[in-house]
Amino acid sequence: MKGRDLLTILVLDLLFTVIFIALIGSPKWGFFFFIILLFVFWIFFSRKSVEETDGAEELRRELGVDGRTAALLYSAGYRDLSDFDGVILEDLLMVEGMRREQAESVMRALKERISGKV
Questions:
Q1: 110, 113, 114 from 117: Cα distances, Å
Q2: pLDDT score of 52 more than 60
Q3: How far apart are CA 9 and CA 38, in angstroms?
Q4: pLDDT tier at 40, thresholds 50, 70, 90
Q5: Choosing a second label site near 100 at 20 to 30 A (CA), which of 2, 21, 30, 87?
Q6: What is the CA radius of gyration of the chain?
Q7: pTM above 0.85, yes or no
Q8: Residue 34 in contact with residue 13, Cβ under 8 Å?
Q9: How far is CA 81 from CA 14, 24, 64, 108, 109, in A?
């Protein structure tokens, strides 16, 4: 789970708790509401994280790249090989956290996959 997800959990939880306290008028019940929502949001975001890990693993196997590179690509919206149609090196370099060496290895892997199919 990323730090951004944890921040999102806390912000959403606090927002809903403040609304709950304003509607109910009892800070005591607001605390319990905060704890319950924290648990619910944690479960929701953890599940999302697991799905991303599974998808990145599949992408890693298809391309033959390392796990970090596959995770970066997956989080940038590249879910399967069809998402790479017409992609150029500069597109991959725009992925947040992608280094030139990683982008070049992805391009090599894509070219090998294409030449293997022909």
A1: 11, 6, 5
A2: no
A3: 7
A4: confident
A5: 2
A6: 20
A7: no
A8: yes
A9: 40, 51, 12, 13, 11
